[in-house]
């Protein structure tokens, strides 16, 4: 294990601590107040600066994320409401959207409310509010490396309808500022089903200031609305009251690197030259990567408004026009009976000397 610039064996670490959680690890907590009452949180600390919280009651999505004790994700004023408060109709999703580092949208609907194939669909589907089952939060040595892995399964099912399972795993190693996420959507039913997935990563202050440098992977970029200017999509502004959100499609994204397993990964980069680290301002870079084999496009949500001061970087296999619009366009993807589709993403945080 490489920790604070020094390489240690497992026995070296065990000689220096009474409990490994002194350095990092995983623990499960439960919230007790207001709309969050009863919501479970799984807290992961890597011991190298990166820490994040997962919500098993909310699809194992990722809430607060910090580096060196400073947040870099955006949190919604809605808090992490218990899923019992969720209403699917229309825009009601917006009342309980938690923000955080990741809000998962899908599995059968993403984007604007619509009526498709006789089914009324609310914004962004059900996944962000779906409790996971078979949840496990485990830390284990693998040789001289210690890995934390959180896993669980989310279902989207209906009598006489869809039967989709999503086993999710999120893992990190102690000593590394890196998290990986793998989803495997399985159609265990006997009819094909629409498959719409969007990974709504939300970045916020103090990572986002006018000094932040944004770099997107090679792609064809166009605004969702024709009247939205393309200029400035890769820059950030100070909070602007009344700002109207801007959405951009990055289509046919091209890979810029490969994963350890040979996946072709696209990468979006946020570099903040003045990020608070241990009482000093240091350059910090956040890299979000994803497998373009199943997430060929990117949606960018730019909203430097007040309160909702967030940048969404959202790898996806669809648009945000809603399922009916994707069907009409001929771009709606499906998952066949018995088929499994895998999605992979990773996030890396780097601090410069």
What does this 3D model show about the protein?
By secondary structure, this protein is mainly beta. The protein has a single domain (2-351), classed as Beta-galactosidase, Chain A, domain 5 (Distorted Sandwich), CATH 2.70.98. It has 3 helices and 26 strands. The protein has helices at 10-16, 93-96, 323-329; strands spanning 2-3, 6-7, 25-30, 40-45, 50-55, 61-67, 70-71, 102-105, 114-116, 119-121, 133-142, 145-157, 163-173, 178-187, 193-194, 198-203, 213-215, 220-223, 246-251, 257-258, 264-277, 280-291, 297-304, 309-316, 334-335, 340-351. Strands 11, 12, 13, 14, 17, 20, 21, 22 and 26 form a 9-stranded antiparallel sheet that branches. The protein has a 6-stranded antiparallel sheet with strand order 8-16-24-23-19-18, with no helix packed on it. A 5-stranded antiparallel sheet has the order 3-4-5-6-7, with no helix packed on it. The longest helix has 7 residues, at 10-16.
């Amino acid at each position: 294990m490489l920790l604070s610039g020094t390489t240690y064996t497992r026995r070296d670490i065990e000689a220096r601590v009474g409990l490994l959680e002194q350095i990092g690890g995983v623990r499960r907590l439960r919230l007790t107040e207001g709309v969050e009452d009863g919501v479970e949180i799984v807290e992961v600390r890597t011991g190298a600066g990166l820490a994040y919280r997962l919500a098993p009651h909310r699809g194992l999505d990722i809430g607060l994320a910090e580096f060196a004790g400073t947040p870099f994700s955006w949190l919604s004023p809605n808090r992490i409401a218990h899923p019992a408060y969720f209403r699917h109709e229309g825009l009601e999703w917006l009342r309980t959207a938690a923000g955080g580092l990741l809000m998962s949208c899908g599995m059968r609907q993403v984007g604007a409310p619509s009526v498709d194939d006789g089914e009324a669909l609310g914004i962004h589907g059900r996944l962000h509010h779906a409790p996971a089952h078979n949840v496990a939060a485990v830390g284990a040595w693998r040789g001289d490396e210690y890995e934390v892995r959180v896993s669980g399964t989310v279902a989207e099912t209906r009598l006489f309808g869809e039967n989709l399972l999503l086993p999710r795993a999120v893992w990190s190693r102690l000593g590394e500022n890196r998290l990986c996420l793998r989803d495997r959507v399985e159609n265990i039913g006997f009819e094909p089903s629409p498959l719409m997935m969007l990974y709504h990563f939300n970045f916020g202050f103090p990572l986002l200031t006018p000094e932040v440098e944004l770099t997107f992977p090679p792609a064809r970029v166009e605004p969702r609305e024709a009247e939205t200017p393309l200029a400035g999509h890769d820059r950030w502004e100070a909070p602007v009251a009344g700002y109207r959100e801007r959405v951009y499609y990055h289509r046919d994204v091209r890979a810029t690197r490969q994963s350890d397993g040979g996946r072709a990964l696209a990468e979006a980069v946020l570099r903040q030259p003045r990020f608070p680290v241990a009482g000093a301002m240091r350059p910090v870079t956040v890299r979000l990567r994803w497998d373009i084999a199943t997430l060929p496009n990117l949606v960018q949500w730019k909203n430097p408004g007040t309160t909702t001061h967030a940048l969404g970087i959202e790898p996806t296999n669809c648009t945000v026009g809603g399922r009916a619009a994707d069907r009409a366009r001929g771009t709606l993807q499906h998952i066949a009976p018995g088929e499994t589709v895998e999605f992979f993403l990773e996030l890396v945080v780097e601090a410069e000397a």
